[in-house]
């Protein structure tokens, strides 16, 4: 029972670590973020993103929802231009877990009422391939044509069409939580 609980805990940690979005952001410390109230998408930048048009639409919908929630309005004469770009990478994860009674864990060599010997144990090995995507969201001062803020989010991607919009919303929301930057 002790092994089952430990094994369950390890599996939960592995699965939950794959589900999270890792985010970072950077910004121009000279920019006055209180001045920016309207936005438009920067089409030339978005067109260069190397993802399907359907995924672009999903990302843009998510950005529209979050920008609206932050009080921005979409405009033909915007204060800020929004651009995106993406990168993907395949990660191969090898998990080697040798739970059991062996040197360094539990009873070592020798006798116990439950076990005699050493090194053998319960264990499992698994290999998984996960495609991670990184989404960059750039906010550009429309008047100056200068980058003022960049947010980046990395997460495991899903192939499940039914869940793609939900995943895009999760990634975009995690990134845009960093905007506007807070003074440190």
Low-confidence stretches: 1-18, 101-108, 116-120
Query: H/E order of the elements?
Result: HEEHHEEEEH
Globally, the shape reads elongated
C-alpha termini separation? 48 Å
How many beta strands in the DSSP annotation?
Answer: 6
DSSP summary: helix tally: 4
Q: Which structural class do the helices and strands define?
A: alpha/beta
Query: Describe the biggest sheet?
Result: 6 strands, mixed
Percent of residues in helical segments?
25-40%
Q: Going across the major beta sheet, what is the strand order?
A: 1-6-5-4-2-3
Strand content: 35-45%
Integer-rounded radius of gyration: 24 Å
Mean pLDDT: 80
List keywords for this structure.
single chain, 184 residues, alpha/beta, six-stranded mixed beta sheet, 4 helices, 6 strands, 31% helix, elongated, disordered N terminus
Describe the structure.
This protein is of the alpha/beta class and 184 residues long. 31% of the residues lie in helices and 35% in strands. It has a 6-stranded mixed beta sheet with strand order 1-6-5-4-2-3. α3 (53-69) crosses α4. The termini are far apart.
């Amino acid at each position: 029972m002790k092994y089952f609980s430990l094994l369950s805990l390890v599996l939960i940690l592995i699965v939950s670590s794959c589900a999270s979005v890792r985010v970072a952001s950077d910004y121009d410390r000279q920019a006055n973020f209180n001045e920016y109230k309207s936005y438009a998408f920067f089409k030339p930048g978005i067109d260069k993103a190397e993802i399907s048009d359907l995924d672009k639409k999903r990302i843009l919908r998510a950005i529209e929802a979050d920008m609206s929630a932050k009080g921005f309005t979409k405009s033909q004469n915007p204060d800020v231009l929004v651009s995106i770009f993406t990168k993907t990478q395949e990660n191969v994860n090898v998990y080697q877990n040798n739970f059991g009674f062996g040197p360094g864990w539990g009873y070592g060599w020798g006798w116990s009422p439950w076990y005699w010997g050493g090194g053998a144990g319960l264990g499992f090995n698994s290999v998984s391939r996960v495609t991670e995507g990184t989404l960059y969201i750039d906010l550009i001062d429309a008047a100056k044509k200068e980058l003022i803020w960049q947010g980046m989010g990395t997460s495991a991607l899903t192939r499940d069409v039914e869940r793609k919009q939900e995943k895009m919303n999760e990634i975009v929301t995690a990134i845009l939580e960093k905007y506007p930057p807070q003074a440190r």
